[in-house]
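[job 4417] fold queue: 2 targets
>>> target A
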Amino acid sequence: MKNVQRFSKAAAPNTILAAALFAIFTAAAPAILAAERESQNLTGDGTQPLVLRQVGSFFIGGRDIAIPYGEGKLINPTYEPTDVIKIDQMYVQFMFPMERKHEFPVIFVHGAFHTGKTWEVTPDGREGWAEYFTRRGFDTYWVDKPWKGRSAFNLQLINGVERGDAPPSTLPSPVILGHNGWSVFRFGPSYGVPNPGVQFPLEAVDEWLKQLVPDFSFYLRGTPSTVSYPALNTDVEALLKKTGPAVYVGHSQGGGEIITIVEAISNPNLFAGLISVEGGRCPPVADAPLYKNVPFLYVTGDFTTPPASCEPFIAALNALGGSGTSLHLPDLGIMGNDHMMMMDRNNLEVANVIQDWIDEHVERKPRGE
């Protein structure tokens, strides 16, 4: 008994501690489980960890060109022997959620003057669509289109003129946007004057201005019209062949380019769905057969109306048995969205509208051969 008593006395504090810890855990268990559920709750407020099975980046496409350098002036002799460089490649980032909940990935493609940063954390630090769609269970890709951001442009076109190897008439003609973007993208009528109820985080406009880059696409396509160009067509098709059928989301210029990309690639059914976020126009009625097996959505924000080309195209596509939709956000009671809706204060509300459309029109619709 002495041994038992001695054991009991020695063990008593540990026993009491264990019992106390058990009681605390038991009491806390519902909160712990709730917290775990909340970590999987797809609120997108950025307060919960975004758990990924893979994150990374790669380049797609590209071609080699020889740089002879001729007999002109050398800008830097160390780096200017005859060489072969790579141009026209496209930079692609991706995030894959730990639990994939959707059959098709999404590919986000930016507009003029922008890069893939468009889809990331907003100028005022909130979660962007790249993070949110991943959080909602989509394998998510977003790109820097050829000659923008990390998809380097052909510097030979400039250096050749500097060295005297090419005439000034061969110089490319990139364009840039700054404060004028305030009115162009419908934050308000002039810089510093907001539209009533506009959703853009105006206090962070300087952070948005820092994102804007020179745009070579006007030079690459040889026209002021919003059409694609060979490098983009090639890179998009190569990306789709790598990812498999995907929902392609193009913003602004990136949405307008959808039309000529679909016309150019070998098989439009590489797209699981096509979403133009204020791409400026819908496809021509004559192209409707190309979209018969590819659901199409056009999204328009506030302070404007859907393009006139959308109604006849949507009607023609649906008459063929396809799936065409034009959504004007104010008609859904979602007000105040400017051209940069993926950055707006209600950006996740808009994202939910798009995700609901994907659920209904892409993932629940039998795909054609």
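>>> target B
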Amino acid sequence: MISRLPVGSQNSSPILFIHGMMHGAWCWDVHFLDYFAQHGFAAYAVNLRGHGKSEGRERLRWTRIADFAKDVENAVQQLPHSPILIGHSMGGFIIQKYLEDHNAPGAVLLSSPAPAGLLSTTLRILRRHPLTFAKVNLTLSLLPMVQTPQLAREAFFSSDFPDEELLTYWKQMEDESYMAFLDMVFLDRPKPGKVKTPMLILGAGRDNMLRPREIEATARAYKTRAIIIPNVAHNSMLEQGWQTVADRILVWLKDRELRNDIEVLGEAEKDTVFENRDLTRGIYHLQ
């Protein structure tokens, strides 16, 4: 687990970031960890088993989503306070499964598969790249999906994403669990009715993996609304517009913080809360 701690005062709830398929904690270390620490959050990112320097690479092919959810549980237990959970893609799917049996102050699903699963995405990949899809199933490996920088761009990045940065991130991508992929398609789909944690559901306007309607389906399942960030692709935490995504999360976190504060105020004090807010900084004003 890697971390960035704020200088000075900090929010009571830390943030735990969960990476997606073929990535590792490194994807949060480019922009998000420092940025959220600068805004007062103790920020942590975990390498799931078989990723980065974590153990379990030799068993990765057969690792289940439930195993990854256990990794999240273990990471949470290492933190001083219950964290806000932020997951990208598969990381958001894992968070959904984790929250079936656990609570958290809040959770953010960033371009994450819907509870209905990845069948639609899988069929789109099959139609676009039938030979690549066949190789995935013959080798029980997800690496063929990103065997070239061009395939990685199509899956994760905008068409105008800088080539040099693309190559840097592509070189850090690694194989993924074939069984976890099947879990997300149909074997172990989330049960939204068991989840009580408030959620922010974010999608990406240029996402080639998950369509806006699939992100909206996730939001409906959790009785909230989806927000689609324009001009960013699936890996929105690494895209040129990453700060827009981070700021939208900060606005939501500040809103949650204010709501919690209002719940403990008396009626007279509640009347002093102003509704105006700075959406760029996500700051709410109390007098």
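[job 4417] complete. Note on B: The domain at 2-117+177-286 is CATH 3.40.50.1820 (Rossmann fold).
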